[in-house]
Amino acid sequence: MTVRITIDNKTVAAPEGSTILKTAANAGFDIPTLCHDQRVKALGVCRLCVVEVEGARNLVASCSAPVTEGMKIITNSRRVRASRKVILDLLLSDIDDGSSKSLRNTSMGAALKEYGVNRSSFPRTRSKIKIDRRGPLYAHDYDKCILCRRCVTTCETRIGRSVTGLTGKGNATRLATFGQAPLIETECEFCGACIDSCPTGALIENWRLKSPVWDRRVKSICTYCGTGCGIVANVKNGRITGVEGDPDHPVSRGDLCVKGRFAFDFVHHPDRLKTPMIRKRKGGKLQKASWDEALDFVARRLNEIKKESGPDSIAGVSSSRCTNEENYVMSRFMRSTIGTNNIDNCARVCHAPSVTGLAAAFGSGAATNSLEEIEGAEVIFLIGSNPQDAHPVISLKIKKAVNNGARLIIADPRKIWLTRYASIHLPLKPGSNMALINSMLNVIIEEGLIDEKFISSRTTNFEAVNEMAAAYPPEKVSRTTGVSAEDIRMAARLYASSKKSMILYGLGITEHTSGTSNVKALANLVMATGNVGRPSSGINPLRGQNNVQGACDMGALPNVFPGYQSVADKSVLAKFAKRYGTSLSGFVGLKTTEYYDVIEDGDLRALVIMAMDPASTDPNLNRVHAALSKLDLLVVMEIFETWTARMADVVLPAASFAEKDGTFTNAERRVQLFRKIIEPLKGVRPDWRIVLDIAERMGAPMPFSSPEEIWDEIAEMTPQFHGMDYERLEREKGLCWPCPDKNHPGSPVMYEVNFPNGLGKFNVIHDVPSKESPDEKYPFTLVTGRRLAHYNDGTMTRRSKGLMTICPHETIDINPDDAKMKRIKDGDLVRVVSRRGETLVKAKITNSSLPGRLFMSFHFEEPLTNVLTSEGKDELSGTPEYKVTAVRVEKAKNKPSVMR
Amino acid sequence: MSSMSPADNLALEKALAIKPEEIIDEITESGLRGLGGAGFPVGRKWRTVREARSDKKFVICNAEEGEPGTFKDRYLIENFPEMVIEGVLIAMHAVGAKQSYIYLRREYGKGYESLKKAVRGFPPGLIKKFGSPEVTLWKGPGGYICGEESALIESISGRRAEPQSRPPYPTEAGLFGHPTLINNVETLANVPLIFNMGAEKYRESFKKIFCVSGDVKKRGIYKAAPGVTLRELVFNHADGMKSAKRFKLALVGGVSGRVFSSDDLDLKLDYELFGNGAIIVLDESRSLRDTILNIAEFFAEESCGKCAPCRQGTSRFEAILKRKYKNKDGSKDMEVLKLLSTVMKDTSLCGLGRTATNVFDDIVKKFGQEVLMTS
C-alpha cells in the first residue's frame, strides 16, 4: 500500500512501512545521519536525522520512524537545525581536543562543516582513550568513536560475526572486543566492512594512518577471485597507498574481502621481477639480461624448435590471471605465429568441467545467472564451494539472502563456516557428488516435484535420465555418500520447493575424476525443476580466479577460438585464417594436464607460460618437476620468482594488473574494463606487450598497439561480444555476455527463451569412482582448497605483511577424534604421506574437518601440498582430482633437512 | 489497607469462569489505567495483545522500581505478593500468554523471597486450571534504565538493557519478537480487586498509592483517590513538615517528574499529574542548586549510553553545573543548560533523556534561574 505524506510542503508517495529518512532521500531531501547504514537495521542512535512531524510533541528520528498517511514533515526548520547542531557539538566534545580538524574527509566531518561546528563548545567528559594499533591491518582509534554502532551492527548482521560490542554505560560506554583482546585473537575475518561503515575514522586502515592523502584515485577491478569486485585505489607519488571498495560497483557495491582490501602491497614489493633473465645452457644459472637479449633468445629458440620438430612441439599456457586481451593475443600467437592449437589456460585445473559439462547440457559453458541475483534467491544449493574463504563477497550475498529468509542447502565434505547459515548440511564423502545429486533427482522424480511443462517444452532426453535416476534411491546412496537418506530427501524437496532455487558450486564439483559428470548431474537437477532461464535460479560456477571465465572465452583452450567457436569447424577456421592472414591448424591441441605425458615422450619440447605456476599448483609435483626440467625451452612471464620461474630458461618480468589497461570477465560473464592505476614499474612490460614483442621478433607481427585495439578484434571475431566496446564497457560498468549488438543491454540471466542449441539436454551419467580411495596404508582422505587470507600459490598474498600475520603458515586441518587417535596435538609437526610424495606440516585440530578427512591449502611453498595430490583426471576435461587424495598422517619425530 | 487484603484466590476463580474477552471487558469497565507513571488505559493495552496474531505471547510484570522516591511496588511485593501473581495470571489468561516474567529490581531481595513463597503457595489444582502457566522471577541486572519497558525486554533477551525505537511497540513485537504485555506491579495488583468487588464498585472505590518521602513528619505509603491535593497528602496524610521549616517544593513523580511549589499545593492530582505517585518533599532549607546537581549526577550515571543526546547531554549537564561558571553570574552557562535541556527533551530516544531535565526546567520556571546561578 502507498501512503502520501508531505515533506517540506512537497507531497510525496511512499510504500507503507518505509522510513521517513528513506522516503525523504528518495524524494531528494538531504537529511544528515551518522549512525544509519541502509544495509543494516536502523539504529536511531545518533539522533542527527531528527525532523519535525506535525502533531508529535518531540522531534522524530527519521531513520527509524515509518511514514503514515497524511504525515506532515519538516526537515530543516530552525528547531531541527539547532538540535542537530547541538548534537554534533556534543559528539565533538569527546573527540581529541574538541576540534573538527581530525575528522576531515569523514562523513562526520562533512556534517560538522555543514552545521558550522569547528570546535566544540561543551566540556570534554570522556577520558582520553589510546589508539589500539594491535590490529595487523587496521587500528581502532577509540577516541574518535561516537558510538554510532554501525560497525557493531554491520559485523553482527551482515558479516555474521560479532567481533566488537559495547561495554560500560552512559558516558563510559566504549566500543571493545571481548576482554579487549587484540583483533588477531578474535574471530575477525578482516573484511574491513566496519571501516567502511565508520563515519569518523575511528576504524582506520594502517595504510591510511601512514598515508592519509593521495594525488589520484583510480577505479579498477580486484585482481583476486572471480567475483570481480570494484576497487578504488589511492595513488601518491606514483605508488598505490591504499585500496577501498567501489560503492558504485554493480557486483560488490563497496564490499571487499581481506585480500581485495588489503593484499595490494605485492605491487610494489621489492621481490617484483624487474629484469629479464636467461639460462644460457641447461644446468646453468639464470642470469640477468636485457629485454632485447631475452626476447631475441626466445624468438630464436622457438623458431628453431618449430623448424626442427614442428609447431606441435611447442605449447602455450595462458592465464586466468591475465586480461582478456592478453589471453587473446596469447592464443592468437600460438595459433598463428607458432601454428598449433596447443594452447590452454589454468582453468584446466579448475573449471574446465564447467565448460564441458554446461555446454553439453545447455550449449554454452558459463554461469546462467548474475551474482546479485543470489540476494533474491529463495533456496540456495551450495555444493563443493567454500565462498566464506574463497569468494567472501559472494558469501556476503548468501548471508544476505538467508537473512532475508532464503533457505541454504550445503553439500560439502567439510563443516564449512557457512553451515551455520544452512538449513541442511550434507557432509558427503569426498568424491561422491554425483551419486548424491542423482539421488536428489531420484527423490524429485519419485515425489512428483518435477516441472513437467519445462521438461516437455524446453528439454530433451528426460526419459533416459528418468531411468538412470531410478538407480539412485536415497537409501542406497546413503551408503556410498555417508549422508542420511532423510537428509537427501529433505534437500531434494527443499531445492524443488521454489522457482527461485539457485545452485552455486565450486571446485568441489569439478576437481574430480567425475568433474564433468558432476556438472551434468547438477544441470539435470536444474532442468528437471525448471530452475533455469529465470532470475535468482540456474546453475552458477563460482570462479576462483579473476579471469577464469575470460581466459576460456578468449579461446585460450586447445579446441576453440574465442566465444567457443570450434577449431574443427571449417568455416570458423577459415574466418580466423583470413583475419590472421595465415593458415591455421584444425587439429585439437593438448590440454595442460596432457603436456607432461607428451614432454616425457619427447614430443613436446618448448613451453611458453604466461602467469601460471604449475610447478607448485599442478598435482603430483614430483612428476611435474621432472617433466619441466626435461624441456628444451621453458619461457615464463611472471611478476614474482615462482617455483616455475626458478625452473625456467627465460624469465620475462611482467606488469601486474595495476600497471595495465584491459578487461576481466567475472563469474557472472560480466566483461569489466579497468584502467591502469600506476605506470608499469621500471623494467617490466605488460604480458600482451611481451607476447607481441616475441611474435614480432619471430617475424609475424600482430597489428595491435593497445589493449583497446585487441578488444576490437575480439569483439569483431566473436558474436557474443559484438556489442561491446571500451566506451560502452566504461559507461555501463561492464556488460554480461552475450551482447550481440551495440543496442543489446547484456545478459545477466541466460536462456530466458531458448538454449543456444534450442533445447536443453538431459545427460545420462554414470558413476566415475575417484582415482584413489583410502585403504589401510593410507586411511585418510585429503581435500585441498583455499584459505581466506591467501590466494592460489600465495606469491602475492604471502608478500603482504598483514595477511601473513593472519595466516602465517600452512596447517593440516584434522578432526579432534582423529588427532586424539593419532596422538597429535594442536601445532604438532606431522608427516603427511601419499602414494606419490610426502611433506611436513603443522596440525590444526578443528571440527571443520570431519573424521577421516583432512584439509590443506596449496598457498605455501613449504609444505608443497601438491607433491601429495592425486593424478586422477576427469576424462572429458582433463581436470585433476585435487579433492581426493588418500594419505596417512603421523606425528613427525624430527624435522628432516628437506621438506619434500 | 482494607481493600488490599491477602487474596483468597476468589478473583482467579471468577476470572476463570468467564471468557478472556470478558476479562478484558471487565478491566476496561473498571477504568483501570497504568499506575507506573504513563496512565495508559489497561483494558486497551490488554486487548491489543489479545488481538495480536502470534503463536507465542508474553506477560511481563515490571517490578524494576528504579525511580528515586518510589517504593510502592516493593511494599506490594513484600506484603501482597499473591495479589501481584494473581494479576499476572489473570493477565496471561486474558491475553493468551503461556509464559510470564516478573522483572524484579536487583535490590529487592526480600520481595524476591516473598514472591517465591507466594508462587509456591497457590493450590496446584487451580494453577492447572489456568493451563499451568510459567511464571519466571527474573532479577534485573540493576540500573534505572531497566525500568524502561523496551530496555527491560532487551535485558531479558540477554542483551544490553537499552531502549528501542518504537514502533514496533512491545504489544506488537516485544520479548523475543512476540507480542508482550508489560504492566507495572501496582497495576497488576489492582486486577484481582476488580474481580473481587466487580468493576463498578472498584471504579468508585479506586485508590492510588502515593509514596511520600523527604522533609515530612511521617514518610510512607498513602492511598488516596485521584484528585487528592498535594496539601492533603503532605499535611494530612504525612502529618506535615518534619521541622518548623516551611514547605518549599515537592517532586511529584520522582526526579524525572514535575516540581510543585507552594502555589501548586491545591492542584488536584489526577493521572496526568501524579506520575507514578512518588512525592519527594523539600523544605525551605534545601539548596535548589544542590538538588539540581544531585539529579544531574544521577542521570549522568544512569544514562544507558545508547543515544547521543542523552549520553553526551547528561554528562555535559553535570559537568557544566559542577564547573566554575564561565561568566561571573553564570547566566551564560544557564543559557547553555537551557538549550541542552531543550535538545535532550526533543531528540532523545527514550523517556530517560526526555525527562532528565524536567526538574531543572520547572525550577527555572518557578523559582527563576538566579537560584541556580550563585554557587
Briefly summarize what is shown.
The complex is a heterodimer of chains A (900) and B (375). Chain A is an alpha/beta fold and 900 residues long. Chain A is built from 30 helices and 37 strands.
Question: SSE layout and pairings?
Answer:
The complex is a heterodimer of chains A (900) and B (375).
Chain A: E1 2-7, E2 10-15, H1 20-26, E3 50-53, E4 60-61, E5 72-74, H2 78-92, H3 107-114, E6 138-140, H4 150-159, E7 164-167, E8 174-177, H5 193-197, E9 203-205, H6 206-210, E10 216-221, E11 230-236, E12 239-245, H7 258-262, E13 277-279, E14 286-288, H8 291-309, E15 314-318, H9 324-338, E16 343-345, H10 352-362, E17 379-383, H11 387-390, H12 392-403, E18 407-411, E19 424-426, H13 433-446, H14 452-458, E20 459-460, H15 462-469, H16 474-481, H17 485-496, E21 501-505, H18 507-510, H19 515-528, E22 539-541, H20 548-553, E23 560-561, E24 565-566, H21 570-580, H22 592-601, E25 606-610, H23 614-617, H24 621-630, E26 633-638, H25 643-647, E27 650-653, E28 662-665, E29 670-674, H26 687-697, H27 707-717, H28 726-731, E30 735-736, E31 760-761, E32 780-785, H29 801-806, E33 811-814, H30 816-821, E34 829-834, E35 838-845, E36 853-857, E37 885-891
Parallel strand pairs in A: 1-5, 15-16, 15-25, 17-18, 17-21, 18-19, 20-31, 21-22, 25-26, 26-27, 32-36, 33-35
Antiparallel strand pairs in A: 1-2, 3-4, 3-5, 6-9, 7-8, 10-11, 11-12, 13-14, 13-27, 23-24, 28-29, 29-30, 32-37, 34-35, 34-37
Helix pairs in contact in A: 8-26, 9-26, 9-27, 10-19, 13-16, 13-17, 13-19, 16-17, 22-24
Chain B: H1 10-17, H2 20-30, H3 42-51, E1 58-63, H4 72-79, H5 81-95, E2 99-104, H6 109-121, H7 124-129, E3 134-139, H8 149-156, E4 180-184, H9 185-197, H10 199-205, E5 208-214, E6 220-224, E7 228-229, H11 230-237, E8 247-252, E9 258-261, E10 268-269, H12 271-274, E11 278-283, H13 288-302, H14 308-322, H15 331-347, H16 351-355, H17 358-367, H18 370-373
Parallel strand pairs in B: 1-2, 1-4, 2-3, 5-11
Antiparallel strand pairs in B: 5-6, 7-10, 8-9, 8-11
Helix pairs in contact in B: 1-5, 1-9, 2-3, 2-5, 2-10, 4-5, 4-6, 5-9, 9-10, 13-14, 14-15
